[in-house]
Amino acid sequence: MSSEGTVEAFRRAESLVAQRRPWEALRALQPVLDIAEDKPSVQLLLGRAYLFSAQFRRAELAFLRVIELDPSDHYARLVLGRTLQRQGRLREARSQVKMAATMHPVPAYQEALGEINARLARRDG
């Protein structure tokens, strides 16, 4: 596949994820993975498609790969935390979301952290 074809396939997969059509996005992303598997943007999109298709363990691995490639990626930490939250792994989720919120202190991240803290308080209290 040419680099133009790879970019086109990536953009198609992005569009499909945005439309909440993760299974189609995963198919569209396959040729991109064959060429650019170790690009953080590719792994992040792969993780989002897995997350939206409820393949939580695969999403977790993709987000961990993004963080391995770019430890400063606050969004990868946020979505990793959300993925862990969906698996009921609240303490691990809190750790990742707290780090994301520290790296990028915006209201949405703070709200995500508050939600996890509230769920932990209900569960443990």
Automatic annotation (TrEMBL):
It comes from the Bacteria. InterPro entries: TPR-like_helical_dom_sf, TPR_rpt. Gene3D superfamilies: Tetratricopeptide repeat domain. Keywords: TPR repeat. Pfam families: TPR_16 (PF13432). TPR repeats lie at residues 40-73. The keyword DNA damage does not apply. This is Flp pilus assembly protein TadD.
